[in-house]
Amino acid sequence: MAVREGRWDCEYCGSKGVLGRHKSCPVCTAVRPAGVKFYLPPESETIDDAELLGYAQIGPDWICEACTNSNAADVRICNHCQTPRSEHSKEQQTKRYNVGEAPKSGDMTFDEEPDLAAASLTAKPATGTPNLSGINQRYLFMGLGAIFFLCTAIFLFRSFSTSDITGTVQAFEWERQVEIEALQTFTEEDWSLPTEARLISQQEAIHHFDQVIIGYETKSREVSEQVQVGSETYVCGQRDLGNGFFEDEYCEDPVYETRYRTETYEEPIYENVPVFQTQYIYEIDRWEAVRTVEANGNNRSAEWPDLNLGNNEREGERTEQYTIIFRTSEGADEKVPYENYDEWRTFDEGDQVTLVYDGWGELREIQR
Fold this sequence. Notes:
- The longest helix is centred in the middle third of the chain and has 29 residues, at 132-160.
- Strand 4 (62-63) and strand 5 form a beta hairpin.
- The chain is mostly beta strands.
- The protein is elongated.
- The N and C termini lie far apart (101 Å).
- The strands form three sheets. Strands 1, 6, 7, 8, 9, 10, 11, 12 and 13 form a nine-stranded antiparallel sheet that branches.
- It folds into three domains: 1-112, no CATH class; 170-180 and 291-367, no CATH class; 183-284, no CATH class.
- Mean pLDDT is 88; it is low at 110-133.
- The protein has helices at 50-56, 116-121, 132-160, 341-345, and strands spanning 3-5, 7-8, 18-19, 62-63, 70-71, 95-98, 162-190, 198-240, 245-297, 313-328, 333-338, 352-358, 363-367.
- It is built from four helices and 13 strands.
């Protein structure tokens, strides 16, 4: 274990860097106080002196209750006032530090007259010296906030504001379509036979393949493994021994080495084995859309087109679209689609309505 001598600062006369072995200040002779902070300067060297090493290992100093003098752990009577050590005598505190965290200097503060000149240099800027960067930043945020507020106000205004325009029914449009379906015969093949199908032929065919193990093959491969071959010791911290000395603490980490070896293993050999099922070829009839007939006009008398169904044909899906063209008081045409035929029929040419638009110019409502 490497041992280094620490230092301490005298709080009475201001002497700094007093050697840890000293129980009193060599300048003012004041005894080292209880709870003094020991520190380890970066240039501290390892102690080789056997006597100092022995002293460092005997334990933390104890504090005399009568005169507060620090005494070595192996001393039973205070070497300053001759008071015996009791079970209530306090010891200097020992501490453990991680590597690099041990204090490198003292932090004693000494009574001094305040330096008013230095204080004036570190005071806040005078009122007449504005912080321009802070002002510019404040104005920037204020400007961005104003732009955001303006955009939000415009959006809300356009979304909720409305305008009314008079419209007159100008024309009607309609369109109707009907799909025509024909019964057609299809030839298909599958692994099952639909109930409505007419069987043409069937055969046993390969449906899929199963992988089956038929044996094993012995093979070899190189494998690696981490093997511990030793350990390494390193300094992982320092311990304040409470008597002016510091001792290095050591930790051990295992050291590993990658080693390779050859191992054998059994690799399975697979064979694709076909699985047969019955495959059916059949005919089946289905209704399929073959054409669409439609009718359209620009009046209020919407009609369905004539279907003219042929043999094996039937009516399929029906679709319809209706439109009213309104002429606005501004001279523009507004085409409005309707899905409901009965609603579309309630309008007559020349009827006047109120067209309600939102702030974005989109038609929102038609008021009769």
